[in-house]
Backbone:
């Protein structure tokens, strides 16, 4: 069956030059974006219940922009002035760049990994006797705690925000040829919003092994998978699928 419409379960890209725009124009598609999940910050009292005292930590490990936002939101709500001497360990350049929203970059000690927190192992070892705080959501990939434990540093997790299912009730009677998912939470949101969802002719596109596993567990038929050596991005995988069914 020909593909005419796609729903991507993420926010719309900020730039008009996104790969989705090119895909849309090339194949004359309707592509809509709608986050199936969103992030909500926890309240200060919940942080206190976790027995988190920001003043006990000289080092902050930041793995995402959400972690940055909610760390500084809560320090402000709890009237804690983050010392200028605080060191920030950022998983990537994108996170470090975003940190400039809150701190004067050149006046702070900021360490940056290339792609993962493990890139900073040698830097962690320089401050092995100090305490580290890891701001996270309620969902945390096991690989991150494992990596920090392996580095043998004194770290504490602080759950400062949480992933919440978005209300999609207005989409109940809307049909798309392809639904695109990037996380198990997106799959969960689909069935929480539409418990009676039946796939029928809807094609399911998924990104990442954990999302594929969640789709399989939900008994969805996965038609498009990424990344693969041939299609490292979701848009490439969708384009390959469209080209194949058009033959």
Residues:
């Amino acid at each position: 069956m020909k593909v005419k419409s796609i729903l991507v379960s993420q926010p719309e890209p900020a730039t008009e030059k996104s790969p989705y725009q090119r895909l849309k124009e090339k194949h004359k598609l309707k592509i809509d974006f709608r986050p199936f999940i969103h992030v909500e910050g926890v309240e200060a009292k919940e942080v206190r219940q976790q027995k988190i005292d920001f003043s006990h930590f000289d080092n902050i490990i930041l793995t995402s922009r959400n972690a940055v936002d909610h760390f500084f939101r809560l320090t402000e709500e709890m009237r804690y002035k983050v010392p200028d001497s605080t060191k920030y360990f950022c998983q990537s350049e994108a996170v470090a760049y975003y940190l400039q929203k809150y701190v004067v970059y050149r006046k702070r000690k900021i360490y940056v990994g290339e792609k993962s927190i493990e890139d900073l192992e040698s830097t962690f070892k320089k401050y092995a006797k100090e305490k580290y705080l890891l701001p996270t959501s309620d969902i945390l990939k096991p690989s991150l705690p494992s990596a920090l434990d392996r580095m043998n540093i004194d770290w504490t997790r602080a759950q400062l925000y949480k992933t919440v299912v978005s209300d999609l009730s207005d989409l109940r009677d809307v049909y798309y040829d392809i639904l695109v998912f990037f996380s198990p939470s997106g799959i969960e949101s689909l069935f929480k919003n539409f418990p009676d969802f039946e796939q029928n002719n809807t094609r399911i596109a998924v990104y990442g092994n954990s999302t594929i596993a969640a789709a399989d567990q939900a008994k969805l038929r996965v038609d498009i998978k990424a990344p693969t050596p041939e299609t490292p991005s979701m848009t490439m995988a969708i384009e390959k699928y469209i080209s194949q069914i058009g033959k």
In short: Residues 5-36+167-245 form a domain with the Rossmann fold fold (CATH 3.40.50.10090).
